[in-house]
Amino acid sequence: MESEQTTMEATKKNGPGSGRTPDAGVEAGAADRLLAVAAGREVPSEVHEQVLRERPVLEVDRFNLWYGAKQALHNITMPIPHNHVTALVGPSGCGKSTLLRSVNRLNDLVPSARTTGTMRLNGDSIYDPRVDVIELRKRMGMVFQRPNPFPMSIYENVVYALRIDGEGNRGILDEVCEMSLRGAALWDEVKDRLKDSALGLSGGQQQRLCIARAIAAEPEVLLLDEPCSALDPIATGKVEDLIQELRGRYSVLIVTHNMQQASRTSDYTAFMYLGRLIEYGPTTEIFTKPILRETEAYVTGRFG
Amino acid sequence: MSSERQRPRRLRSAHSNLSAHGEPWVWLTAGSLALAIAMITGLLCFIAIRGAATFWPVPLELVELADGRKVLGEVTGRQTAVQPGRDAPEQAARRLVRTANFEFTGNHYEWIDESAITATTLPEWATAVDRLEGGRFHGFPLRLMHGEEVVAAGAEGVWEEFERIHPAARERFRAARSIDKHDRGVLQRRLRAARLDVVQAGLSSGLESPQRAESVKRESEVIAAVELEEKILDQKTASLRAQNAGWGVEFETPGGEKTILPLDSIVRAWQPNRLSLASKAQLYGARWGEFLADDPREANSAGGVFPAIWGTIAMTLIMAVFVAPFGVLAALYLREYATRGPVTAAVRIAINNLAGVPSIVYGAFGLGFFCYVLGAGIDGVFFRPSLIADNQPTFGTGGLLWASLTLALLTLPVVIVATEEALSAVPNSMREGSYACGASKWQTIRRIVLPRALPGIMTGLILAMARGAGEVAPLMLVGVKKIALDLPIDGTFPFVHPEREFMHLAYLIYDVGFQSPNSEAAKPMVFTITFLLVAIIALLNLTAIWIRSRLQRRYVAQQF
Ligand SMILES: Nc1ncnc2c1ncn2[C@@H]1O[C@H](COP(=O)(O)OP(=O)(O)O)[C@@H](O)[C@H]1O
Ligand SMILES: [Mg+2]
After folding, report:
1. Chain B partners within 8 Å of A148 (Cβ)
2. Residue B141: is the preceding peptide bond cis (ω within 30°)?
3. Number of domains comprising chain A
4. What's the ipTM?
5. How would you write the pLDDT of chain B (560 residues) with one tens digit per residue?
6. Which domain holds residue A66?
7. CA atoms lying within 13 Å on the CB side of residue B301
8. Residue A304: inside a domain, yes or no?
9. What are the residues whose beta carbon lies below 5 Å from ligand 2 (ion)?
10. How far, in Å, from the CA of A285 to the mean position of ligand 2?
């Protein structure tokens, strides 16, 4: 508990406001930071001040997660700004998906997973024992790495969240279906075959269908876990355009492997490494003048 | 030095040895498959050919023997047997002839040595007769008689007349039998119901109560009404039988005996030696028709198997109706809800082992539990009068319901294992997608997992039906009977009688093949019944496969 406290303070102290700048003297120390992480030592996160000035939709607060004995997330503290796109980048296995799945508590399904710390969605605690996980998940939407349409018609896929809430009004369902499909830029392609099986769509269409499904219930935050990694370039382009359109209307937390995608689509970018948040700030700053050398090294593709 | 040593090694590896290529393994695997296919198709073809050939009319050979005896019959087998000779064992060819005419020959079949045969001919008017009783008859038609009056004489004339009047006579015979079997049965049941009402009234209100007096009065009314109706039925059957009485066909056997076969006891008669191919085909179709649609005769070795077809299909479907929900629910709990651990593992192993328990054990359990405990309990509560008055159990003995339940139990492991497999084959990403939409576990199972697993579950059900439909041993204990002509669904209230005993094709195979007094004649029937059973199981499976492929198209498509 005490160590967590000190880390928090360190985070604040080492923020850009504290006057620390990426000068020549840091270069050696900066590389050390990743080594220190690898060695398992506590390392402060660099969080840019602009992030803290935004109104957060989701607050991650000193969050730790273990899979059995193995710790996958170390003391993550990060606010996710409202109605902005926030990208999570970092090498494979650094815990990006784990963090995302912790937000809607999908990790509850993993028997070995254990957490400390908390998260808040618009001020409501997510990890409070009294929270109804089902109600909680209804406030979020999630899109996975591989498209996972349900074995039912396109229409039923989109209105799935409403169906399980017992919504039977045809008018409402039709309207939500059309709005969500339009929102996911899929309406024109499927409007004539809404009753067809969703499994007959192409991969890119399936992924946009999953996005439509995720936004159908008007989520407070949209979680996208590498939504383009299983898609071909054209489908990727369409999904990226779609994320651009969602910007400003939805709060989006997106995991991506692709630096260009992060820089094109996101407002804020967080760099993670081995379960730790290393640096978090506005995308332009992370990609042009990051505080840490290792962030720069990573985003320019020199490692990772 | 080292490069020199390497060279030959390279040369060798360029050729590469046989086992490295894996060729022998390809041959071995392909050979195993070929062997399996050969055995399966061989068995099925054998059954199909023998089964389909049963009803094809075979020529009647008139065999004259050295000792002057004459035998008329179908040659059903040939053999070279080794016989003890004077000096050394001798090879002797012989043929098996279906001599029929049991009342004269004392045999149905006879082995005849080729050496004893002086002549073999195919007489045009040799006639084969399927009779109601007494087995097959072979002979030559002489006269058509009505009492003492000769209606027609000479083979040709007799036959012309026979074909004209025989269908109507058979029709009258069937009508009379149907009255005896059905209409009188209905009357008997009405009597019994009235009698049991009296017992029931005595039980529930006391022997001196007005209710009992009332029902006694009603019983006597019913008895009077039934007597009246019975008289009418008597008249009907008597007139039908009177019209047939006296009609007969006189035949002469090859041995020279003359006998008159009553017209209405002749099920079918034909002259195989003079039939054209078309009329042979027609006869073949008619015999199949009788086989599929009629009740059995002569201890099941002749006639049809309709009640058994009915029983087999009904039992299999009822079994499926029971086993499907039970198996699926059990598998659902095991796979989706039970926490993984030693207990679940033990349960799973136990279920798998259940599949290895000999089926007769299930039969014993079914008899002990379903019939004697459950059935006796039901009888005690709902069927007390019958138990007390007739000492006759209703559900407390074997029947269609208990047999179906027993087989459902027997096939439960198959369904559970298949369902579990199907459930675990549902991609986790789909479940997670559903949870992420805010669905509860049950909603996820009902809307995503089950539809997606349905084809796999159907596969399990198909396997279960195939296994259940072919079982014999447990059925012998829980309700299958040699002869049970009352179908479990009929026109009498309450229309469905799940407590009734029934016939089953698989048991019929055993019964006809091994319990029949005339086993040689029953042999072709065994093949035909087997053929039919296999065909029915194939039909049930094809239906299920068709349903499954429809579901598959709907729920499980390729990913990209
Ligand atoms: N269900 C799980 N059980 C155990 N370990 C897991 C599980 N899921 C992920 N991990 C581990 O947690 C770490 C982070 O994984 P993940 O969040 O999937 O990384 P990323 O998405 O950044 O590639 C990895 O080391 C991975 O092996
Ligand atoms: Mg990942």
Report:
1. 427, 429-430, 432-433
2. no
3. 2
4. 0.87
5. 444 555 555 555 556 666 677 778 888 999 999 999 999 999 999 999 998 888 899 899 999 998 888 889 988 888 887 777 777 777 888 888 888 888 888 888 888 888 888 888 999 899 999 888 888 899 999 888 888 888 888 888 888 888 888 999 888 988 888 888 888 888 888 888 888 888 888 878 777 888 888 888 888 888 889 899 999 999 999 998 888 888 889 999 888 888 989 988 898 899 999 889 999 999 999 999 989 988 888 777 778 889 899 889 889 999 999 999 999 999 999 998 988 889 999 999 999 888 888 999 999 998 888 888 888 888 778 877 777 777 777 787 878 899 999 999 999 999 999 999 999 999 999 999 999 999 999 999 999 999 889 888 988 888 888 888 888 889 889 888 887 777 777 766 677 777 788 888 988 888 888 887 777 778 888 999 999 999 988 888 888 888 888 887 776 654 33
6. 45-299
7. 22
8. no
9. A 97
10. 24
Within 104-133 of A, beta carbons closer than 8 Å to B belong to 104, 106, 109, 111
Q: What share of chain B is helix, strand, coil (3-state, %, to 5)?
A: 65, 15, 20
A108 lines ligand 1 (CB under 6 A): no
Which of B428, B429, B435, B437 to substitute to test the interface with A, most A CBs within 10 Å? B437
Of B435, B556, B560, the CB nearest to A151: B556
Q: Does A267 lie in the same domain as A218?
A: yes
Is there a contact between B489 and A190 (Cβ–Cβ < 8 Å)? no
Question: What pTM was computed for the model?
Answer: 0.80
Q: What class is the B309-504 domain?
A: mainly alpha
Q: Which atom of ligand 1 is nearest to the CA of A225?
A: 21
Q: Could you tell me if the CB of A88 is within 6 A of ligand 1?
A: no
Region of residue B198 (phi > 0: left; psi between -120 and 50: alpha; otherwise: beta) = alpha
CB contact under 8 A, A210 and B433: yes
Quick check: helix, strand or coil at residue B466? helix
Token pair listed for A163: 């169906």
CA distance B482 to chain A (A): 49
Residue-range domain boundaries for chain B: 61-141, 148-245, 309-504
Q: Which chain A residues have a beta carbon less than 8 Å from that of B457? A: none
Instruction: Write the CATH number for A289.
Output: 3.40.50.300
Residue type, B447: R
d(CA A260, CA A253): 16
Residues B499/B476, Cβ–Cβ less than 8 Å: no
